[in-house]
């Protein structure tokens, strides 16, 4: 047990005296930045794809778009996140001759990747809304687009909020691979502390703890949001 | 007002409507009856192109709305529709349900007029003096539109005695209340005609009366209505014309007295003997 006490001492030494906490805060910021931007981009892309997939396909344009969307979803669900990160960072960027930092690439890849997953979540959400809702919107003279935005998607989002929360949580946890492209996230910060104190047990324990607290906070947030969206269900 | 010419509709290989010809005049109250599967609902849904007709035309106020190149949304604003399952917007309160379409369409027109005026300002600068165009007069604002729509909605709610439910969500209403709100929601657009798709079929028996009373009141106001229903008593009392549909065609069309007293078509005679 005395051994463990010494380990904590060494961790605290690097964490506080050698400014380890700055790296940790910076890593936390990057982790949250990547997950939140990824989720936001993902929601936009996912909603667009889901809408394309539920549009009636009499005409050519929706059919072509639908084909493209299936390809997109297949591509991003069919490869691991790490592979996507590596391909973007080491293949796409040099070919297109663009300069981007690891964090920027991660935000983009996380957005594109979660877009593929969220599109499926969103599609099930849209299909869970009674088709009569869309019909009623069309019947009072609103366009397909307006009826979707004002009537169907708000109800769909309410239905899929728990699943969307899951997606956000798994995004947060998946950010631990962004060090592959040189983005400094929580994992990078704690392994720095570990290698500077020659002691990995405590840093990684603390890291795990931070992830758990993050995820718990997010679950709480989602529950509160759900409750406020539920007001149209409540009978009074 | 509505001219239906040789309307046909198929779902895949199944031909549901096999050539319908009807003319509906202003102030008509046309009730459509028939056995289930006869195409009554499909016929009604083709009138405002909720189902796109396979062939034939629906001439509404001089425009063939079955033509795919027509902007159907503009014409649907003059054609209310009431559904069997009410279809109130669940994420909106009662008053928002009524206000949504009028506010949205009027705001859209306002923005369009503003855009046009802005463009005219640029154009007039380069036009010779005699070619300058007058800007569209804008007399309203978004806030004003909303206020007017709210007053209008409250007036409509008062008419059906539900003004205290204005801020309630549809899930808190009874079936009859929902259907009455759905009817005034379509009224809020000041439509030329309202289509009713079995408006009382999903209601508890004791709530049917309140909905029918509202529909009778509308009829007395001179609203043009097309009603698919199984309420024979209502058809007899309110209709100006009753249509009998079977196997995708209109088998008989007559004023209610003659329709119920002296049916000519043998299929209609059989149908009436079963339901009356």
Account of the 3D structure:
The complex is a heterodimer of chains A (236) and B (276). Chain A is an all-alpha fold and 236 residues long. Chain A is built from nine helices and no strands. Chain A is elongated and about 75 Å long. In chain A, 82% of the residues lie in helices and 0% in strands. Chain A has helices at residues 2-17, 20-54, 60-78, 81-96, 102-128, 131-139, 144-174, 186-197, 201-229. In chain A, helix 4 (81-96) packs across helix 5, helix 7 (144-174) packs antiparallel against helix 9 (201-229) and helix 8 runs antiparallel to helix 9. With 276 residues, chain B is of the alpha/beta class. Chain B has nine helices and ten strands. Chain B has helices spanning 40-47, 72-76, 94-126, 142-159, 175-187, 205-220, 232-238, 256-261, 266-275; strands at 2-11, 14-24, 29-33, 55-60, 63-64, 79-82, 193-197, 224-228, 241-246, 249-254. In chain B, the strands form two sheets. Chain B has a six-stranded mixed sheet, sandwiched between helices. Chain B has a four-stranded antiparallel sheet with strand order 2-1-4-5, covered by helices on one side. In chain B, strand 1 (2-11) and strand 2 form a beta hairpin. Chain B is globular, with a radius of gyration of 22 Å. At the A-B interface, helix 6 and helix 7 of A face helix 2, helix 3 and helix 5 of B.
């Amino acid at each position: 047990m005395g051994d463990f006490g010494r380990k904590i001492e060494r961790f605290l030494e690097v964490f506080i005296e050698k400014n380890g906490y700055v790296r940790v805060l910076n890593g936390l910021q990057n982790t949250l930045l990547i997950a939140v931007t990824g989720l936001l981009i993902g929601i936009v892309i996912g909603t667009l794809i889901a809408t394309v997939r539920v549009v009636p396909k009499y005409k050519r344009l929706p059919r072509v778009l639908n084909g493209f969307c299936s390809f997109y979803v297949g591509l991003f669900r069919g490869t691991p996140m790490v592979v996507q990160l590596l391909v973007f960072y080491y293949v796409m960027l040099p070919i297109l001759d663009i300069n981007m930092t690891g964090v920027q690439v991660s935000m983009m890849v996380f957005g594109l990747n979660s877009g593929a997953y969220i599109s499926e979540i969103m599609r099930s959400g849209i299909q869970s809304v009674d088709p009569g809702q869309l019909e009623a919107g069309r019947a009072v003279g609103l366009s397909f687009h307006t009826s979707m935005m004002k009537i169907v998607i708000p109800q769909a989002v309410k239905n899929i909020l728990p699943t969307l929360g899951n997606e956000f949580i798994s995004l947060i946890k998946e950010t631990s691979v962004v060090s592959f492209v040189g983005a400094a996230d929580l994992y990078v910060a704690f392994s720095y502390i570990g290698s500077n104190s020659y002691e990995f047990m405590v840093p990684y324990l603390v890291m795990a703890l931070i992830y758990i607290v993050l995820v718990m906070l997010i679950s709480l947030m989602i529950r509160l949001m759900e409750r406020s969206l539920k007001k149209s269900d409540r009978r009074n | 007002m509505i001219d239906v010419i040789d309307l046909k509709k198929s779902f895949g290989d199944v031909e549901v409507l096999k050539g319908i010809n009807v003319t509906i005049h202003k102030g008509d109250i046309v009730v459509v009856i028939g056995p289930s599967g006869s195409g009554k609902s499909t016929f009604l849904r083709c009138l405002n192109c909720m189902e796109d007709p396979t062939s034939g035309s629906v001439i509404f106020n001089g425009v063939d709305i079955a033509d795919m190149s027509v902007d159907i949304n503009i014409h649907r604003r003059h054609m209310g529709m009431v559904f069997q399952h009410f279809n109130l917007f669940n994420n909106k309160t009662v008053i928002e349900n009524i206000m949504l379409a009028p506010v949205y369409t009027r705001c859209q027109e306002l923005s369009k007029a503003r855009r046009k005026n802005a463009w005219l300002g640029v154009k007039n600068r380069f036009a010779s003096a005699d070619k300058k165009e007058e800007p569209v007069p804008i007399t309203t604002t978004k806030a004003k539109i909303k206020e007017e729509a709210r007053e209008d909605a409250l007036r409509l709610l008062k008419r059906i005695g539900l003004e205290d439910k204005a801020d309630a969500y549809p899930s808190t209403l009874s079936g009859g209340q929902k259907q009455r709100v759905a009817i005034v929601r379509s009224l809020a657009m000041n439509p030329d005609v309202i289509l009713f798709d079995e408006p009382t079929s999903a209601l508890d028996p004791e709530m049917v009366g309140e909905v029918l009373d509202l529909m009778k009141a509308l009829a007395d106001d001179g609203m043009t209505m097309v009603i698919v229903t199984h309420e024979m008593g209502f058809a007899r009392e309110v209709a100006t014309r009753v249509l009998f549909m079977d196997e995708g065609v209109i088998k008989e069309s007559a004023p209610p007295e003659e329709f119920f007293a002296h049916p000519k078509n043998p299929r209609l005679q059989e149908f009436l003997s079963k339901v009356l």
